[in-house]
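Check these lines:
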Amino acid sequence: MDKFLTPAQVCERVPGMTTGSLAQMRYLGTGPRYFKPSHKRVLYSESDIVAWLEGTARFGTHPDKVAS
């Protein structure tokens, strides 16, 4: 079974990530998939965080140099 993480726990695992930047990514729809089991609670699946991070891999700074 996958482990669920709070935004603070995600930030502990991803260097440079802040809860504010995660909130902004949720608003923009650009961050990792998340769950909202109640009005105030946001949770992330550990495997979704890993998959999202792997999806950001790059070989260079040119837009055509996306890892695949």
Observations:
- The longest strand covers residues 4-5.
- The chain has one domain: 4-54.
